Each structure stands twice: as structure tokens, then as C-alpha cells.
Amino acid sequence: MSDNAARRLSSMFYRISIAIEAGKDHLSDLDGAIGDADHGITMSLGFMAVNAELAKLNLDDTLPSEVFAVAASAFLDAVGASTGPLYATAFRRAAQALKKDECLSLADQAAIVEAMTTGIKERGKGQRGDKTMLDAWVPATEAAVNARARAAGGSEMWNAILEAAEAGANSTRSMVAARGRAARLGERSLGHMDPGAASAVIILRAMKDTFEEGEREKPGSR
């Protein structure tokens, strides 16, 4: 495990948790417009639980795939609502993707984003355009796959991923919800950003910051 990939992933989850906590009220406000006003609280609880479980691990002896597996179980145990199974499945798929080489190369980072999106789609049976978190995750994955195909550098890849996710989240304002509690509102869901898409952007930004920081810290990178 070069530069201890497990520690990088643990740091990533910690950074996600801090960012979600900081945006908790905003996320719940977004959810209040079209849902139960608890999305920020739910996400915060989920990632706090993840960090509590990761803190119990000896990261020097932990594989990167195991970090994601622990995160999946912890998130699901803490969050019983629909978001819990969605992200638990996302983390499990990411764990499976990393088992191939237990590395965090740029190709692996793209694979993590792709695997998480696949997990969310599988569990939620949704698609882009439903006004859900997939409206951020799907374009993020497309950007990751395209960047991997052209052998883009780390910053270029993650900038493309985040820009695509942000554009996708913003696009949900013009959508009528087709899934979840917001679907009950019909046309009244127009004009509001989906909170799940908004939290997806927060997660992806924290992932970007973590992986870019890891690249800067590598020997010879300066």
C-alpha cells in the first residue's frame, strides 16, 4: 500500500463528515422545501458513524477495500432511511472495485466514483433526470470515465468530476421529482435543488480535496 491508501481513505471520510456537518442546515433547508427537512441531519449522523468505526481500525494493517466495507456497514447501521441503503451499497461497490489491486491510482479513483454511482443506481432503481442524487453522481461518473480514457492528470480529472456534479445538481431545480417523497409534490417540486444531489457535490468535493492533497504529498511531486 503506497503512502498508506487506507489512511488516505480514512482522511477522506473524515473530510466528508466535516463538510457535511458544515452544510447540514443548508441541506435540511433544501429538504424542507420538498421532503422531510432531515437530509442534513441524516447525512451527518451517517458519516459521524463511519468515522467512529474507522477510528477503531489499525489503518496500517487495513486494506483500502476494507475501509469502504466498514463505512458501508456503519452508514447503514446509523441511517435507516432510504439514504442509508443507497450509500451503503455505494460503499460496498467501491470496496469491490478496489479489491482488484488495493491501490488509489487515478484509474482507481475514477473507478471508485463509477462504482459508487453503480451502487446507488442498483439500490435505488433510479436514473438521471429523476431529481435525485443521481443527477450529480451520473455526470460525475461520465466525467471520471472520460478523464480516465484520455489519461488526464489528477487535478484535471477531479475538476471535471466536480464541475459535472455541480452542473447536475443545479439542473435539478428545473426538474419535477420522479422518485422519493418529493415525487408526491409533482409540479411543486420545480424550482428547488434536490438535497441528495447537493450532498453528493459536498461528498465529491471532499473526495477531490483528499486525493489532490495526496498527490501533492507524494515524493517528487513538488
UniProtKB/TrEMBL annotation:
Q: Which Pfam families would you find in this protein's record?
A: Dak2 (PF02734)
- Transit peptide listed as a keyword: no
Q: Name one GO molecular function term.
A: glycerone kinase activity
Residues folding into a coiled coil are none
Which InterPro entries does the UniProt record give?
DhaK_L_YcgS (IPR012737), DhaL_dom (IPR004007), DhaL_dom_sf (IPR036117), Dihydroxyacetone_Kinase (IPR050861)
Q: Provide a GO CC annotation, any one.
A: cytosol
Which Gene Ontology terms describe the biological processes this protein takes part in? glycerol catabolic process
Q: Which UniProt keywords apply?
A: Kinase, Transferase
Q: Is the RNA-binding keyword given for this protein?
A: no
Q: Which residues span the membrane? A: none
Output the superkingdom of the source species: Bacteria
Q: Which residues form the DhaL domain?
A: 7-209
Q: Which protein is depicted?
A: Dihydroxyacetone kinase subunit L
Q: What is the source species?
A: Mesorhizobium sanjuanii
Q: What is the lineage of its organism?
A: Bacteria, Pseudomonadati, Pseudomonadota, Alphaproteobacteria, Hyphomicrobiales
